[in-house]
Task: structure prediction
Amino acid sequence: MSAAGVVGYAQLSMADPAAWRATGSAWASLAGVAERRSSELTDDAADLRAAWSGSAAESADSRLARLRGELVALVPAAIETDQVLAEFAARLVAARAQLAAAVALAAATGVLIDRRGGVRADPVRMQTDRTGTAVAQVATALREALVLAATADGEATARLARLAEDAGTGWTAQPPSYRPPAPGEPALVRRWWAGLTPAERRWLVVHEPELTGRLDGIPADARDQANRLLLVARRAALVERWEQLLARVPRGPLELAGLRGVEAAMSGLDALVARLESSQQPRAYLLGLDVAEEGRAVVALGNPDRATDVLTYVPGMTAGLDDATGELGRAHRVLTRCAELAPDAQTSAVLWLDYDAPDFLHEAAWDGQARAAGESLHRFQEGLRATHEGPPARQTVLGHSYGSLVVGTTARDHGLAADALVFVGSPGVGVAHAADLGLPPGQVWASSAPDDVIRLTRPPDELALRAALGASPVGAIAGWLAGPSDELWFGRDPAGPGFGGRTFPSGRYGHTGYWHPDNPALDGMARVVLGR
Result:
């Protein structure tokens, strides 16, 4: 092994990914400091204008405005530094997992690895007829781990060097002359973005975060920077709604329900911000946020533009901003299981909560909200394809409960940029057969727990027929709950034998237990994401 390789082995053995992640988080915290100082300067400038006039006052006000602009322009750079270091830390984790696998292989096959990374046969344990093969296998495994670490180190160094160079030439420039329509075709948006200078992109992040943060086709790192810039304003909007409802006297049931809803949304947003600001791996990327009504959020764990496997998770009924971190936890559990099954894999999971999920059963009985979500989900998946770096990632879209109907109707009506679809706890997906979803049936998967109440639903026409035949309400309900059926409320059960897809098992964990650590369904979801 070369001298460089020996040094690389020692460095990788002692590398601490958590320390790099914490360093990135510390850089991100500077963004908050810059924003607070900018806000303070705004207040100071207002006080100054009220007490001072004349040319000197105008000059001072102008200088304060420039200083505020420079502080705000630093925010995306601090966030970008965090992104770079977080991604470097994640790849170090994968490289160290490969290194650990190589060491385990050496121990199992009688190969010795010295402290400098040298590889040789153990003369006591090694059988002569397979000495060369075993040593070569271990050496290859070590080399692959070192190459991954060296590649990650080189890329992170280059990205940080570009940031340092930009600091000397100015973070932002004049605004670009053209803006794509919103929403635009993701591939066209990506080409437009690629044609801008780094300074023009930062100008858009700083001065037009609303546009930059929501456009599919803009890379995840820029969207994350823009949407983080909007967090303070988003919470202020929630507080304003809460104060407006609080001021209404007398307050009736609607106002009280509205107050509770806004309070829940504020609590959910605070929890989401805490996750965004934590040094927990994988790093969270905020790809979309809306605080209107129940609220919406699109959050990726790990950068989907740099992952080899990307999961998009669409939650079901009652999903909203109030429990976005809970839904994100489900996506995280799939990622964790992926890491256990394939420690060297680079996987990202996205919580796609960018639709108006039903809040009540009478809303969930219709497919209108699923159909309304179709264009947005279609465009988001196209955007993931457009912004991905390197070879295309394996993209999997997972829908739970009503979210499975969202995924199914989107695939049916618009098409989905996906390599696999997964449905769990589904009431039907809007089609009669897996072949109607636009993917090979072998890449359409489903699971339904034996005790999931969703299995007891019946098509609305069957219930209507029972009523027309004069069945009593008790009899109708008894028939409705008679047992599982291949025909569910929104079509044939995707986990049933007649649907034509593939299935994986689930234990008896009910309608929401597919992500339970002991449920084999969690393994099933992870294996589909990994394509294994």
Residues 1-7, 463-482 have pLDDT under 50 and may be disordered. The longest strand covers residues 284-290. The radius of gyration is 27 Å. Residues 55-109 form the longest helix (55 residues).
